[in-house]
Amino acid sequence: MRATLVVPTLNEAGSIGHVLRSFRSAAEDANRGLWASDPIDWEILVVDGASTDGTADRARAEGARVIVEPRKGYGRAYQTGFAAARGDYIATADGDATYPVETIPALLHRLIDERYDFLSGNRLAYLKREAMTTEHRIGNRALNLFLHIAYHHYLESAEGGRLEDSQSGFWIFRRSILEQIHPTDDGMAFSEELKIEVLLKRLRFVEVPIHYGERWGRPKLSSWRDGFGNMLFLYRKRIAIAYAERGRRNTHATEAGQTRPG
Q: What distance in Å separates the CA atoms of residue 91 and residue 107, rounded to the nearest whole number?
């Protein structure tokens, strides 16, 4: 079986080596233990946003396949990575050492064993103060609340009917679901759009608690600007879904009227 780890990067030369080594060590250990009967052939794919600090070279030195994506955006990097991934399963993590990449092999086993389509990590479950600023915490809580209000109808397909961390970028999923979902955002809102698309298609979704670490290097997010942009995206996406559903209902009603005996 083949799987791909996709890591978007932008000037993370100081941490990318640590991230990839931690993952590779865990994957090799799992192939000798948990996956011994069917070892996983892991592809490591780094999508680099034209870094200027040597990130791409360091990733290649660690055995990663590197794609340079000059077009800006977190979502753009993932769309490029997903299109290029060769694995039957895809896992994701950031290049700043915040996500527990060493847990990916075991979580992939859970996804397959329990027949889920998409697994997402909940960063807020064990969150330490130093791992996230107060502004970022407030923004996450606000976005999660709005998502629960606006999209509560679709959360039924999630395990327990809840999504605690809509902004998490730590995912493991079956590559085949990419044929059913259609995320389009090139920015940070891609994180929530991907999950919303999974929920809209009623795919089997589970969220698991993860440990989220302190970022290596300078943060790239603007809590208020990016938070407001994501909130606006959630609102616009919900309006678009409502219009699409209304259109389908009207079409069905028209078709039913045309086929009714007169």
A: 10
The set of residues, in sequence order, having a beta carbon less than 8 Å from that of 184 and lying 6+ positions away, is 193
What SS3 state is found at 185?
A: coil
Which residues in 11-163 belong to E strands, given as ranges? 41-48, 65-68, 89-92, 118-122
Q: What is the pLDDT of residues 154-202, one digit of tens each?
A: 887 777 778 899 999 999 999 999 999 999 899 989 999 999 999 999 9
The pLDDT of residue 2 is above 80: yes
For 208, the enclosing helix (H) or strand (E) is strand 205-209
| Cα-to-chain-centroid distance, residue 262 | 52
Is 108:3 a contact under the CB 8 Å cutoff?
A: yes
Kindly report the pTM of this predicted structure. 0.88
Domains annotated for the chain, with CATH where assigned, are: 2-254 (3.90.550.10)
Residues composing the chain: 262
Please tell me the distance from the alpha carbon of residue 55 to that of residue 8, in angstroms, as a whole number. Answer: 11
Checking if the pLDDT of 252 tops 70, the result is no
Q: In whole angstroms, what is the distance from residue 120 CA to residue 122 CA?
A: 7
DSSP structure class, residue 158: B
> CA-to-CA distance for 252 and 178, rounded, in angstroms?
27
